[in-house]
Recover the amino acids of this structure.
């Protein structure tokens, strides 16, 4: 069966520091991968999605970036964090093109920027 | 473009009472419909989904939802809730073939003993 991992689970970072969050998927190949952010009291906002290695689409312009160095690895990064980057970051995966678009979510990373 | 409106931000109910969480959507193309549940400090878990066929969909934990195309709704129901159902519930739509989800703002379900 497929599993999705995220780490770290929690992170406290000062303003201006760099960020790297990692997501990996097991038990599937060529998944679509997604990064969402859930800010306090708000719904889920799609940040990036990827349909293959090196293929990244950005949904919202901001100081975050994403990379997909391997088929089942998705990384969210920032060079300098802002206070507004605080939130709960969720990674998700779905099947190949032609699938039913069901997305499955990881456990999330709680980021606090101070 | 698609949008999803969850009509209630918070729903308090007593244990063993029935509950309905409302979801309406807007889309100019056919969509798939989903309900997810999020327990505190956890990721989202798929409750159920409507892809095609019967408009009444049964999911995990005793939940069900009914797709109403004319009213563009996908309300979630459970006939008798438990304390363990306390969580946030998200309705989402995906344009068929678009590989993206659009979420509602969520409904916080609180179960009182």
């Amino acid at each position: 069966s497929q599993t999705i991992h995220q780490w770290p689970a929690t992170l406290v970072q000062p303003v201006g520091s760099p960020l790297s969050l990692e997501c990996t998927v097991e038990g599937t190949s060529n998944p679509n991968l997604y990064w969402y952010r859930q800010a306090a009291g708000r719904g889920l906002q799609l940040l990036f999605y990827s349909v293959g290695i090196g293929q990244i689409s950005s949904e919202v312009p901001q100081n975050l970036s994403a990379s997909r160095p391997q088929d089942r690895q998705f990384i969210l990064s920032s060079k300098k964090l802002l206070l507004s980057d605080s939130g709960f970051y969720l990674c998700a995966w779905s099947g190949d093109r032609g699938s039913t678009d069901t997305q499955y979510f990881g456990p999330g990373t709680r980021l606090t920027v101070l | 473009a698609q949008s999803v409106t969850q009509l209630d931000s918070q729903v308090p109910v007593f244990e063993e009472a029935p509950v309905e969480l409302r979801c309406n959507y807007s889309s100019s193309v056919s969509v798939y419909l989903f309900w997810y549940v999020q327990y505190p400090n956890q990721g989202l878990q798929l409750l159920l989904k409507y892809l095609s066929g019967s408009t009444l969909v049964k999911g995990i934990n005793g939940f069900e939802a009914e797709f109403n195309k004319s009213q563009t709704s996908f309300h979630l129901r459970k006939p008798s809730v438990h304390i363990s159902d306390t969580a946030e519930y998200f309705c989402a739509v995906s344009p068929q073939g678009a590989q993206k989800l659009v979420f509602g703002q969520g409904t916080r379900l609180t179960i009182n003993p």
